[in-house]
Design a protein that fits this description.
The chain has 414 residues and is mainly beta. It has helices at residues 168-172, 354-357, 360-363; strands at residues 50-52, 58-62, 68-72, 78-81, 89-92, 96-101, 104-109, 112-116, 121-125, 129-135, 141-144, 152-157, 162-167, 178-183, 191-194, 197-203, 209-215, 221-226, 233-235, 240-244, 247-254, 257-264, 275-277, 284-288, 293-298, 303-308, 313-318, 325-330, 335-339, 347-348, 368-370, 375-379, 384-389, 395-400, 408-412. It has a domain at 277-414: Lipocalin. It has a four-stranded antiparallel sheet, with no helix packed on it. Strands 5-6-7-10 form a four-stranded antiparallel sheet, with no helix packed on it. Strand 8 (112-116) and strand 9 form a beta hairpin. The two termini are 22 Å apart.
Length: 414
């Protein structure tokens, strides 16, 4: 794929030869023309990309017709990307962009990513590219592992029951390669990576996901767990979360031995969470369902907390920083910032989404993403993306525009 703005391209796209794993505060070695084959694959390095000092955060916007663009949040430089098939959903693992429709999934490489190494991170910048399309029947549910350059990505096609794991290393080479494919009963299911294998939903007699199966890399079943009406998944610092009608299952893997642990809702709980969102790589996730409020799942403590709100919630994300911020978007178009444990917001914006909420085909695609400093919220009918300083009184730091309408929005470089 050709980026149509030269400002986004690096003049030299070379990998680094790293002698060891240095902290993010240490200036990286100068890229060298002899470093064509990265020696630090365990740190996220990929041939043709350079390690840089700070996260290369970008926004990727896709409109209802499939036109795509990106905005460099550091330089403010916008660029057009190759179009995709008009998508039903758009998701990202922080590097790759997955645009799903009823006939398959188009995959773009944003060219920027972060390698989380626990106590520090490595940041990379390369060239954006179109990887290709994975055909499938029904709009796929897509689940990510902790890293974009290693491990796998899971896809489940509801109309066929096909469950697929894609090799992330192959994606970094511009190739779609399936490491595992299984066919089950068609249903609204989940295939999520776990260790070298995966967790996949199993439907009940009513055609609704009812249980989970942990698989090894060959598809062999290792263990199972009940999970009625399974819906929503996220990978946290601790493990893989899959939502259930009666709580959630936390899946972890110690070598070749997966564990599926049920975390029940407290007695008298509100409606279950069916989608989850959080700052990447943190242990706490925010979940929303049909009731007024937000579920907060601490996967380290294996506990739930209910955060009530005065209006229905259309999006929420747990920042899980020192201040334990939670960013919540209400059905009134206001953004509120809470401190986890408090029942009243620290700050609330004016309504931001009036036109978008009044446009049904746009309202369902309002998306919230958070990183360590900012939250981003698309207002497609208004034609903007709001950058919100959640730690500074929910201040609107910038009102951003991209070359294409942000009917769908994801953040990459995380």
């Amino acid at each position: 794929m050709i980026l149509r703005s030269p400002t986004l391209l690096l003049t030299t796209l070379l990998a680094l030869t790293l002698a060891g794993c240095s902290s993010a505060s240490t200036p990286p070695a100068t890229p060298s023309s002899t470093a064509d084959q990265p020696t630090s694959a365990g740190h996220g390095a990929v041939t043709g990309a350079a390690e840089v000092k700070e996260p290369q955060r970008h926004l990727v916007a896709i409109d209802t017709a499939g036109k795509a663009s990106t905005l460099d949040l550091l330089s403010g430089s916008p660029s057009l990307l190759d179009p995709v098939t008009p998508p039903d959903t758009v998701t990202s693992d922080g590097r790759y962009v997955f645009a799903a429709n009823s006939t398959g999934v188009d995959i773009l490489d944003s060219g920027v990513w972060t390698w989380d190494h626990g106590d520090h991170s490595h940041f990379y910048r390369g060239e954006a590219a179109t990887i290709g399309t994975l055909p499938g029947k029904g709009t796929a549910t897509i689940a990510f592992g902790p890293l974009s350059t290693a491990g796998t990505t899971g896809l489940f096609f509801p109309d066929s029951g096909d469950a697929v794991l894609l090799d992330n290393s192959a994606l970094s080479d511009g190739t779609i390669s399936e490491s595992l494919r299984m066919t089950g009963t068609p249903h609204a299911g989940i295939m999520a990576p776990l260790g070298k294998g995966a967790v996949v939903t199993q439907s009940g007699d009513d055609g609704v996901a009812a249980s989970l199966r942990a698989l090894d890399a060959t598809g062999k079943e290792l263990t199972t767990a009940g999970c009625p009406a399974a819906a929503g998944t996220i990978t946290t610092r601790v493990g893989l979360v899959i939502g259930c009608a009666d709580g959630a299952v936390l899946a972890t893997s110690d070598g070749d031995s997966p564990t599926l642990e049920h975390i029940p809702y407290p007695d008298g709980a509100a409606a279950p969470a069916t989608e989850f969102n959080a700052r990447k790589g943190r242990p706490t996730a925010a979940g929303i369902g049909t009731d007024k409020g937000v579920w907060l799942l601490n996967t380290r403590q294996k506990s739930w907390e209910w955060l009530p709100t005065t209006t229905p919630v259309i999006a929420a994300a747990a920042v899980d920083n020192a201040a334990r911020h939670v960013v919540v978007v209400g059905a009134d178009g206001r953004v509120s910032v809470y401190a986890q444990g408090d029942k009243e917001p620290l700050a609330t914006t004016a309504p931001l989404l009036g036109k978008s909420l009044d446009t049904p085909n746009l309202a369902e695609h309002i998306q919230l993403t958070v990183d360590s400093e900012r939250a981003y919220l698309n207002a497609p009918a208004e034609g903007v993306v709001y950058e919100i300083a959640y730690a500074d009184g929910a201040r609107i730091a910038r009102t951003l525009t991209l070359p294409t309408e942000a009917s769908h929005l994801v953040e990459t470089g995380r």
